[in-house]
Amino acid sequence: MMNRVYRLVGLLCCGYLSLYSSVVSAENSHNTQSKSASQWADAYASSTAVSIPRTQQFMLKDASRDYPVMVKLPKDYQQNSTHYYPVIYMTDSMYSLQVVSGATRFPMNSNVMHQAILVAIGYQKGSKGASSRIRDYTPSHDPSWKLNTGEANRHLHFIRDTVMPFVEHQYRVDTQQNTLMGNSLGGLFGAYVLLEQPTLFTNYVLGSPSLWFDNKHLLQRFIQDFSQTPAISAKVFIGIGELERPPYTVDNHQMVADAQTFYQILQSHPSAQTGALQLKLLVIPEADHSMAFPTTAIHGLSWLFKRAD
């Protein structure tokens, strides 16, 4: 009889301990989760916006249009008060500045590459990015597009007459060392500037230029007119992804072949024969249109600004 009582008491104790253990385990788990949630809440509460160092944004006017322009100064700009810096002007600011700032940070800060002021020009305030860039970067009007096209000339004058004078007034600028960088439609715009005002910039970095636009209108203009352009002293870097060709491109655009044709046209200019016009074409292995620009940017700027050993 006593043995049965002992066994019953033992079973009850084991059951209680098991239940207690489960409760404690659940409470510990809840406390751990609550603690983690509390830690996350503290992390979110202490979060701050991250900005690119030494970078300011200005709003510049083109008549009724306002454009954000971001300027990043070199690391030693404040300390080296007598030095005048080259300027790299970029289209598509929200994309290009982050890429170029990150890619050049180490080589410029470690003096592997000459330091430069970065100026990135954005899209018209209040407009959708696509509508502003398609309008501003295309050199001819194509009625087959739903969005407005063909105002590259106006945008060129805005950069020449407003953006560049502003930068040169605000900062110590080497006006003999201006670079224009653009990608895709921005690369098309850069090619347009090279044809229309080839002396405005001393360097051009043209990534994946959309020379297919408007049935290759600008490329045809180069074929017809570029040989008549007066002597040019400039460096032109063209980058294109190996996969920027059918079947990897939208509407089967032959962007690699177009870039090669463009390069050959530039090569045929008398200034290229004398060495005043220096050219480089980089076909980037395994890169498509979405991937090519970062490689174009760092290779192009290294070619232009790398310090001699």
UniProtKB/TrEMBL annotation:
Q: Which SUPFAM superfamilies match?
A: alpha/beta-Hydrolases
Signal sequence region: 1-26
* Cited Gene3D superfamilies: alpha/beta hydrolase (3.40.50.1820)
The record's Pfam families line, in alphabetical order, gives: Esterase (PF00756)
> Keyword annotations for this protein?
Hydrolase, Signal
Keyword Nuclease tagged: no
Does the entry feature the keyword Signal, yes or no? Answer: yes
Q: Which GO terms describe its molecular function?
A: hydrolase activity
Q: Which domain of life is it from?
A: Bacteria
User: What family classification does the UniProt entry report for this protein?
Assistant: Belongs to the esterase D family.
Name recorded for this polypeptide: Alpha/beta hydrolase-fold protein
Top-level taxonomy: Bacteria, Pseudomonadati, Pseudomonadota, Gammaproteobacteria, Alteromonadales
